[in-house]
Amino acid sequence: MTIERMAGTAGGKPFPVYEDLVSRLLAAHHPGGGGRDATAGHVLGICAGYAYADLETVSTMMGRLGLEGCACARISQTVDAMFVFSTAYLVQSRCGRLVILCYRGTEPANLANWVADADVGSESITLGGERLAVHSGFHRNVRATRWAVLRELELALQGKSLLDPEESVEHPAQALYVTGHSLGGAMAVLFALSLAVSEEHRALAEQMRAVYTFGQPLATGEPLPAAAGEVARKLFRHVAPRDPIPALPAAPWGRLAHFGEEYCQTEGGWQRSATPVAQLENVRDIPRSLLALFAPAKRRESSRYSMAEHTPHHYLAALRPAGRITELGDLD
What we know:
By secondary structure, the protein is of the alpha/beta class. It has helices at about 20-25, 40-50, 55-65, 110-120, 135-155, 185-195, 200-205, 230-235, 285-290, 295-300, 310-320, and strands at about 1-5, 70-80, 85-90, 100-105, 125, 130-135, 175-180, 210-215, 235-240, 260-265, 270. The strands form 2 sheets. It has a 9-stranded mixed β-sheet, sandwiched between helices. Strands 5-6 form a two-stranded antiparallel sheet. Strand 10 and strand 11 (about 270) form a beta hairpin.
């Protein structure tokens, strides 16, 4: 396991994207309530999208967004034979009051990642004395870095700098956001569930404002234990209309179901769905869904699913509020 650290930069003109980003995210979902927040969705979507890059890129993008001088840490663990490919980024505002935990998603070029995603199994976890079925591959990846992630978050809660744990910041953590795209979204949900029922980390769980996921696959079974209700109220899942991943893994690999609030991309913006995305019933649909990205344009347009709509940049384009520059500094 490796832990790397780096400070975010200011970015210079035309940045930051948000002059008052820390205040905005501290006000959103306070205290852990309220509906979807557009600024949070945009910022967390960018963090989740660039989590596929290196530490310098993530710290740069977060600095451009408005977290100038933030502390950025990356925790990673890879064990090929165990299908473990776990990477978590933690971003702490310079003042210390805001912390973002972001899990990296599945890397399309890494076939072993896809194998791990298909490894559903029959694993379950205990929540408030009740059992909940979980996707074993996703759960294994969360567990691979969980204790290291918790140590970093506890440091932030104690007012320590994630850039240098021997140093203090102005304030202890007051708001924690958890996010991720694709596999990273599933890991974000499973981490949030484990944190919500942990007596040892109760003070940290109380600071968790919201969980935002993008193109998240199914990660848990049903019925949802009562102890998971707090996470359900804080979970905001974003789904593109033809993204196949939220409907996977298919039912033959095990029955799973989404929970939390689901928002679907429409021409009018992100609208709350009346019902969550249903699990794909026919496993034979999966190869067509995954190969749709490489199909001719006309065939993609007629397909029920398109992997092109699962890509991070597709979500980022839809998440940016009107009038805001992009993380690259333009309005186009």
